Amino acid sequence: MKNRRSFIQRILLVSGLSLFASKVQAESVRSQKDLFKHVVFFWLKKDSIKSNSEEFILNLQKFISQVSVIKSSHIGKPATTDRPVIDKSYDFCLIVSFANKTDHDIYQTHETHLEFIKTSEKLWDRVLVYDSEAI
């Protein structure tokens, strides 16, 4: 009788933990659907790309750290993957996430973002932006 009761308690505990984990995962997925992604590709000036790269990265890191509405950020360079559909012509990629479009709009007019553009635009030849809202 004692073993049976212990077994039932363990089953109930495992079931409860599984339900809790499922609820947490569902909440996480639901909150991610509210995210707004801002993806920016940069092509730096080729004549001085090595010297520009360090300054550019420092400028990016500085301004990103000062914009509180950014939920997450990623600074990257082209991956070493190789397939016909991959464009690796850019030098750097910035991906930032926001809770919603309103926070994105705050970011766009944030003084440190505008300062980044002002101080860094001399370093790039081209910028391409993709904005995306979760569906």
Helix content: 40-55%
Given the structure, what is the number of helices?
4
Low-confidence stretches: 26-30
Largest sheet: 4 strands, antiparallel
Helix/sheet category = alpha+beta
Notes on the structure:
There is one protein chain. Helix content is 50%, strand content 23%. By secondary structure, the protein is an alpha+beta fold. A four-stranded antiparallel sheet has the order 2-3-1-4. The termini are far apart.
Brief overview:
This protein is of the alpha+beta class and 135 residues long.
Main attributes of the structure:
135 residues, alpha+beta, four-stranded antiparallel sheet, elongated
Q: How would you summarize the topology of this molecule?
A:
Blueprint: H1 2-32, E1 36-44, H2 49-65, E2 72-76, E3 92-98, H3 101-109, H4 111-120, E4 124-133
Antiparallel strand pairs: 1-3, 1-4, 2-3
